[in-house]
Structure formats: C-alpha cells, structure tokens
Design goal:
By secondary structure, the chain is of the alpha+beta class. The protein is about 25% helix and about 30% strand. The strands form 5 sheets. A 4-stranded mixed beta sheet has the order 19-18-1-20, with no helix packed on it. About 5% of the residues have low confidence.
Length: about 375
C-alpha cells in the first residue's frame, strides 16, 4: 500500500475525533511523531472550535455535574467539584483544596500541589477552605492557570487569591480584593479572564474580573443595579458572550449579555433557539486519582436553562503536562543521534590514525632489522 505524505496526514488527521487519532498513533512512527507535535495538537483544537462555531444547530458544548442546581450547596461538602474547563482540559477538586487537571478524552491527569494558604479552619463554617476558584488559559504565556481564593475568617470581607501555572507547578499570591464571594463559586472564563459575583462590605454586588495574562483585578459595572440587588443572579456564557441570568426562573426571566463592553438585553427567539450539549462528569470520589474519569457523548439541553453557567468543553489532545514538549523531545533525540555519530566518527578516526601510526612504527623497525642483516660491500 502506498504511503501518504506527511503533509497530507497533517491536513487529514486533525479532522478526526480524538479517539480515532489516538488509534492512529499506532500506525507508524512518523504518524505518531506528527500527532504528538505541539503544532498538530493546536491544529486539532482550532478545528474542533471551528466546527462548533459553524454548526448553526448547536450552541456550546458544556461539562457539568448531574445536579448542577445544587452545585453551591454541595460546595460545603467533600464531593467532587468542577473548578473549570478550557481547551479540553478539566480542573476538578475531589476533596478539600486538592486539585487535579484531567483530559477526559486522552485519560491523562496531573495532581497539583496543595495551596500554601492556611486559613483558620476552626473559625470557618465550611469543610472546604477555599472560597472560590477558577481555571483558564493564558494566551500570553501559552499556559493554563488554576486560581484559588481564600478568606482568613468566614465573615471576612477580603479575599486573597493564589495562582498556579501548569508549567511551573507552584502556587504564588497574586493579590487581595476587598470583596467576598456572593454566588457562583466557580469563576466564569470569558475573554481571557475569570469572573465572579462578589459583594462589598456595604453589600453592594459587583462583578470582579481577573485577567489571567496580567493577573490584575477590575470591577465590571452592572446592567441594572436595582433589580440585581433583590434577586439571585448568576454569571454564564451564552452565544460567545458573558451573560447575567436569574437562577430562580432561568427560562423566562430577563437576561443581559455583554457586547462591545456594554450590557444589552438578550432577546430570545424561541423559534431559532439553539441547543447546547451537556457532557456530564460522574460524581465519583476515589482514594487515588486515576485516569478513569470520563465524560459521556452529551445530551442536548436548552441554551436558556441553568446550564449556561456550566463550563465550555471541547474534546482535544491538549496534555495537562505542558512541560512535556514532544517537539523538543524529538529535537533532543535528533541532537543525541548527531552527537553520537560525531563521537563515532572521531573514535573511528582516532582508531584509524592509531593503526596507521602502529603500521609506520612496525615498518620502520623492519627496515632497521633488514639493514643490520645486509652484508657490507667489498
């Protein structure tokens, strides 16, 4: 059978599903090298997002727990929680302040170190020491970041934030805000930033945004201050826009979407309503985090429902171990081969030179012996 050129392979394979691409790694070494390259992983990811955007019958793909309505009440207990999702990677917290980043499609996972922040646990009325969290992608450094917000005391109006990057695998303090979490403990990732509903000490409700590239906080103005004071609203993403909606009646209440840095009332045409696809993450706690976590094929859900606060999800080949650069590994392998070849050539040259030198010495000794045995001329 004739072999396909690698450039053709690089154009065809990104169109396949992740599970089919994983099988293709076993075809031959050249295909495996292509699939493991960073360029191929990004090409496949871009293609996956493009397919969703061009699908006029499909909204977003999302990942959530089965009981999404009870997410905040479960936060006080040691259930598995979804911290966030980005580019096919899923950050979960199985217990306390433990964090694990998983790619459910490739079954890779990475346990993260525990944040160094130690609040006064005996003064807190919750089993989880973290007040809020989030997960997202920093395009400026091509890295993924986990955010954890803590309060020193349960009634504190200040929240301290720590960040961990997957490349560094270490936590650092990035700042403190004079606000406390209000509703929706998982930060909504949109436009390169995480967003939370928080309250000021005077009970003023605000949206706090954390830019993952600059690691700076800013306050986003509200669309309708009076209404949002007296109702329970949440943040989410709808039709590629940050939105605010009511958790009491998400199908009928007014919604606002942010377009061009301005809030607009969302107009829903029920005749043209898209459906999101919810991928459910199993509520299962294991003593040892393994790669057996998975998401199913998804279920269509109304785009106006409570699911609009769930994290965006797409199947990808992105690894939770970003420091493992297969392209660099291949370069190092080629470099080692080149150096080994040079060493072999030098060794052969030295050995050849030594042999030549030995032959010259032997020839010289033979000539001396022959001169001694020659009879003198009379």
């Amino acid at each position: 059978m004739a072999e396909l050129a690698l450039d053709v392979v690089e154009r065809i394979l990104p169109l396949l599903d992740v599970k089919d691409i994983i099988r293709c790694k076993s075809v031959c070494k050249s295909w495996r090298s292509v699939i493991l390259s960073l360029r191929f992983v990004k090409a496949h990811l871009n293609n996956a997002y493009t397919n969703d955007r061009n699908n006029h019958e499909l909204g977003h793909r999302r990942v959530c727990l089965r009981g999404i309505r009870g997410e905040d009440s479960w936060f006080l207990l040691d259930y598995i929680h979804i911290v966030g999702s980005c580019n096919g990677l899923l950050c979960v917290s199985p217990i306390g302040v433990k964090f694990v980043v998983i790619n459910p499609s490739t079954r890779e996972h990475k346990k993260l170190p525990t944040p160094p922040f130690q609040p006064h646990v005996h003064k807190l009325a919750m089993t989880r020491e973290v007040a809020c969290w989030g997960f997202g992608y920093d395009s400026s450094s091509d890295d993924y970041k986990v955010i954890a917000g803590f309060m020193k005391k349960f009634d504190s109006k200040r929240t301290s934030f720590l960040v961990l990057t997957l490349k560094s695998n270490t936590w650092k303090v990035i700042g403190q805000v004079k606000y406390s979490i209000y509703e929706g403990r998982s930060g909504v990732f949109y436009g390169g930033a995480l967003h939370w509903f928080m309250t000021h000490k005077n009970l003023k409700k605000v949206i706090i945004s954390l830019d993952l590239s600059t690691e700076e906080f800013k306050e986003i103005p509200m669309p309708d201050v009076y209404m949002l004071y007296f109702d329970s609203y949440r943040l989410g993403v709808i039709e590629e826009c940050l939105c605010i909606y009511s958790i009491r009646s998400p199908l009928s209440t007014k919604k606002w979407v942010m377009k061009n840095n301005k809030w607009e009332l969302y107009i829903d045409n029920h005749c043209q309503t898209k459906y999101d696809v919810a991928h459910y993450f199993p509520i299962r706690k294991e003593s040892h985090m393994t790669s057996r976590y998975y998401v199913d094929d998804g279920t269509p859900v109304p785009i106006n429902g409570d699911y609009i606060r769930a994290s965006i999800f797409v199947k990808s080949l992105v690894s939770p171990h970003p420091h493992v650069n297969h392209d660099n590994n291949n370069n190092h392998y080629d470099e080692h081969k080149r150096i080994a070849k040079q060493v072999q050539e030098v060794t052969e040259s030295v050995e050849s030179g030594a042999k030549g030198h030995i032959r010259k010495r032997k020839k010289k000794r033979r000539s001396k012996r022959s001169c001694k045995h020659k009879k003198p001329l009379v």
